[in-house]
Amino acid sequence: MTAAPDGDVHGPVDGARCTAHPCAVEERREIAGLRERKKRRTRLALIDAALDLFLEKGYDATTIDEIVAAVEVSQRTFFRYFATKEDVVTAFLGEYDKLMAEALAARPAHERPFTALLESLRVMLRTSAATGGGDSDRFRRIRQVLKSTPALEAAQTARYSAAEKTLAAEIARREGVDAADDLRPHFIVAFHTAAARVAFEDCARNDIWDPETVAARVEESLALAVATMREWV
Question: Record's superkingdom (predicted)?
């Protein structure tokens, strides 16, 4: 006769009931949360190691073997997170594109399109600030890699295009129009994205990476962009 495992003194029937107990459910949630945090730590470690190597040796000269060796994981682990070496750069930026889209979808239905986009951008900026500067430093290093690696320009352009299409589709849904036939969602997204990009580039040129300072400068620049459109168009 097989002894019941420790903590299962009531046998299999009560053990089955235990899985539905609130404590058991909470424990599974905690375990799932720990796994997700571990995955994120591994993902960020790979990104950080790759960026260090790209800036030290150059993007083209860096191999995936060198990246995984720096983190002490296998190639199999690398490919669990990234499809290619290029993805190490673009996937991190893509996480913020996704966050922006999710924030936009959650905005109140009555908000006007530009306001909804601005509020969604604020969510993105607060999320970056909450990392304590870690993500801001990654943005800084990614920008350096992109500037020194023409081979990544196509991937970056494709990322911008995909992100704008996603946002335009959401604006069209909110406004009850068809993005395939109505260009207005594309206009408002392109205007917002261009204004934000100019603001971020201005911060980068002036070597401003503190999250709160960046957020304040972006807010000022977007307000200026709106005022400029009213006065100059």
Answer: Bacteria
